[in-house]
Amino acid sequence: MKENILSMPAPDMYSDCRIKKIAVLTSGGDAPGMNAAIRAVTRSAIYFGREVVGIYYGYKGMINKNFQIMKSGDVSNIIQSGGTILKSARSKEFMTKEGREKAYQNLKEENIDALVVIGGDGTFTGARIFAQEFNFPIVGVPGTIDNDLFGTDFTVGYDTALNTIVQAVDKIRDTATAHERLFFIEVMGRDAGFLALNGGIAAGSEAVLIPEFETDMGTLETYIETGYRKNKKSSIVLVAEGDKAGGAFSIASKIEREYPQYDVRVTVLGHVQRGGSPTASDRILAGRLGVAAIEALLDDQKSVMVGIEFDEIVHVPFNKAIKNEKSVNQHLLRVLRMLSI
Amino acid sequence: MKENILSMPAPDMYSDCRIKKIAVLTSGGDAPGMNAAIRAVTRSAIYFGREVVGIYYGYKGMINKNFQIMKSGDVSNIIQSGGTILKSARSKEFMTKEGREKAYQNLKEENIDALVVIGGDGTFTGARIFAQEFNFPIVGVPGTIDNDLFGTDFTVGYDTALNTIVQAVDKIRDTATAHERLFFIEVMGRDAGFLALNGGIAAGSEAVLIPEFETDMGTLETYIETGYRKNKKSSIVLVAEGDKAGGAFSIASKIEREYPQYDVRVTVLGHVQRGGSPTASDRILAGRLGVAAIEALLDDQKSVMVGIEFDEIVHVPFNKAIKNEKSVNQHLLRVLRMLSI
Amino acid sequence: MKENILSMPAPDMYSDCRIKKIAVLTSGGDAPGMNAAIRAVTRSAIYFGREVVGIYYGYKGMINKNFQIMKSGDVSNIIQSGGTILKSARSKEFMTKEGREKAYQNLKEENIDALVVIGGDGTFTGARIFAQEFNFPIVGVPGTIDNDLFGTDFTVGYDTALNTIVQAVDKIRDTATAHERLFFIEVMGRDAGFLALNGGIAAGSEAVLIPEFETDMGTLETYIETGYRKNKKSSIVLVAEGDKAGGAFSIASKIEREYPQYDVRVTVLGHVQRGGSPTASDRILAGRLGVAAIEALLDDQKSVMVGIEFDEIVHVPFNKAIKNEKSVNQHLLRVLRMLSI
Amino acid sequence: MKENILSMPAPDMYSDCRIKKIAVLTSGGDAPGMNAAIRAVTRSAIYFGREVVGIYYGYKGMINKNFQIMKSGDVSNIIQSGGTILKSARSKEFMTKEGREKAYQNLKEENIDALVVIGGDGTFTGARIFAQEFNFPIVGVPGTIDNDLFGTDFTVGYDTALNTIVQAVDKIRDTATAHERLFFIEVMGRDAGFLALNGGIAAGSEAVLIPEFETDMGTLETYIETGYRKNKKSSIVLVAEGDKAGGAFSIASKIEREYPQYDVRVTVLGHVQRGGSPTASDRILAGRLGVAAIEALLDDQKSVMVGIEFDEIVHVPFNKAIKNEKSVNQHLLRVLRMLSI
Lengths: 341, 341, 341, 341
Known about the structure:
Chain A is of the alpha/beta class. Chain A is 40% helix and 17% strand. In chain A, helix 6 packs parallel to helix 11.
């Protein structure tokens, strides 16, 4: 029998830290779990006696001063919602020195001492420059469905998108089986094949085409042919949008030309992959990383992304998170192939 | 306190009917609930002491004699599955007199006395010709996601597809709201706007474009403009694939040209709309219509589709089900527009 | 090619009606789709140039004056949410003349001319008395998962609860099949068996026990025995909470005593049945009935529930909606039994 | 650009291993993903040129010789199904020396050289004894929703059960919020609080009560009181079934007695937690562990559970997997409490 579950850390443990007011924004493509992260950032900051300011529309709102004080109740009942209550937007102005200067003045005017940014590599690239220019403490929370950030095992939104893909492919398989068709299904992932590869394994697909590997049309053809010869009557191939051989439509028409006997179909899953209520994993991850971001700031960290590696919180310099490449687990490729025989 | 819930109709009530062996097939595009219908046909026929033969691959399998005896246990645990365990296929051969003659001989050889076909208007067109040519009793169960069959309030599969669409649009709305975008979402419906119109109301979309009505681009533009002026920041327009103004991509690019200030996106939902576990409504409908199809045959009916109108079973001649046009409820258009202000 | 889909009814068509300000509340047990109904009431009233006031906590809030002006934007993004943004509560005070007097004064003070109440029979009973006492126009929207209101084919929330039940039973069947168990699953329905009966058909259950019929334990036992003798290895029985033979636990223990060889389990689905994102059907129904409620008031109706019968809007006096009994479709009992052989 | 994604490991790499025929069974409580594991075991064994035998009903079927040869096609289209196609059962006979002797003879008669068992600690306890007694190679795949096996970060079925819980609590929260109630929700976990604790964080619950920690009713009461004083109007407490203070009903009635002003409700989620289509994570985990189990056998391992730690395959002696205690992440308790302020 160990310590009491209801005991709590001391709310005043960071009373000597000079950061009193913390802003939070979301930027870049939205991802399920961003709201859970906003909730965690807000509530843990309030827990430690800090004030929280929500910035709407990402960096654009930082320039246009779309600020709003956030109380605990303002983040009630959002843990289960997709999208982001703080909205997201692109900002060309923030790419200029003048834009960032204006943003900085706005933060100063409101006595904001630090910033949490939730987003992907574009978001962190902006954060890194801003932090350097104005010596301003920023911590990032990885929020992107692509899971392509180095230094964290998972990004917020990835698990939800993966499940959305798998559920969609399950539905398509009903039709593929009934009509004995060959389906090419395009999923998100411009530079990274995490969604396609893991989605392919989980959905029991016959093959995946991902940006990390050269797509050899000949091998794909042999593979499909063999399957058909072995009496496999329907097949599903997941194609990452950034695949080198072109998108699902282009690959499908190549196959169709060569094998007119196959009944080929294409579905591009599109924007459904970005939305929806976050999975349990994404909500827990968002909760942990949101708390970790506030603790990192109060622990005097800056220009780092908080991440999770081997179930432990880690701090990864923005520079590394952006520039290093995170690679797909090659063991999974073998698993996929063995299981699709 | 009324009759006992556990009492049953007499299994021998049709003992004088000469139909002893009944075949069942699915044909055309698959729809969720087809398996529940196969189960209902099979079990109610067995209940009334009949033998059941499953025909695989629709009319093609009738020609190729892909027959299999179906027992009650063969349709266990399929009520919840999308697709069709009997598969579906197109058959050019069945469009010829020779093909149909061959199919008829196969039925005779196996002593099959009657047939239940589950599908849409293509299926019933084939059934009607075959029934006339060989004076063979056939009853149809309406199974198509499009809900475009005259004489039945609902077709098996429609409610599931509608819910799939609404759940997908809910997800896309998360993104549309976060980024304040204008989305055009294309849904199935080559000739009928049931999915787009009802999906549009249920998803809270701003407008729908359906084949039944002329799409006036000017009005659509005015409408979107007004919304934006009234501070509506994201909009969703559902486009039936058979809309007269072209698909979602074509309409979106027209709008984009005229209004470069809008952030326009397109998603084509595609084949996910056909699959998935059927909703409660679709399963109940499939169950009722499957039983009704067997009762109709045993009641000496032929060349009819069984349907549901005002919660009652009806028999609709194939000829009427195919040729008469079922119209969308115009009242719903008003509801949609009022609710999107 | 018919009238343009984007044309609209005249917003000033009710300009001569003296009702200018309309309040809306939800009361009784919450049901999925109540928010969609609030949205429809609010927006259609605004469309016709009326002001809308939301009353929080049902009749209690009417007494405590928890009023708030509702704009179109206040009901954005709620169509997909379960529960009710206007909250619900029981009010003993409203059962007294004094309480209702106070409520009436509050409405007068705010110049509220009419009221829409969304709820079940308890809600309409209160509305009927209030309307008579103060000659105040009230229209009701049927919102309850039980579907037990006379005069409407469906109530808002019923279809969602039905699907929640079916999805839960699907999950339990995975376990029942794996372990070859006999499951008794209790679902909501104190006086009405709609959920149990329709849920039972849709989930492919072996039997249902509902309040409308005497449960003959002997027949149930024979039935289960027969199933087992025919090699049915797992069975699922749905029990409405109001079943005359007692709840699921009580029935299960009777069976267990008699048949120790069965591996019996019980699950009481409980409050999960009330929540969740409404289905497409429930959202469309809520939309149509919300608009119809406003039109009824502007058409000078009072003390009626708006309902849907045979896909048409109907007006049912509160008195009839409450007192007449809506009966389950007995044909469905036959369907259930035939399909569980 | 790295190696070709479509290249494969050599199917004959284990040609010198004497294990030619491998049996697989599932035992104990079923868990979502067991079918995906059966598929992976079967296909990877076939890939490496081995024969596969499915044993029905766990150890009971090993004694009763419920054996069946499994081909690749026999595990098609099961990756998405809950439950287990090989069924599960308890066997008292297997707890006796005679029973196990009989089982061993059956394996020998069929020339089965090795066994994969999918289940939890009960399953592995039986496997360990059997393996020792007959010097028979057995490898285990952790399949249990409780996640309570030492030596693996996750067990197959846990992620699905967690998501089922979170979706159920989301629905209940709709009602809790609408009526401003205090809900106690009981989830599975006789000895382990993984589901309750992680479910509580993901669902945004106010507190969790788990077996690993003493439940101090005083602190719980203070906590709830404080919440109410801070104007929190509805609360959700997750209770693991094995909590020391008793189940949800018992705790709820204590609270109700002390605080009659709270509107308290209880829901016991029950068997829905065991079923359902597995999540992406559970399918991928099942796929990896199924392959790993076959590779372990062919690599001459025995009496080990294959697990996943830090995203790598590990081999854990049965003895350790069963006897060592896996502890919940205490950091998560802090996160839960901070986020529920």
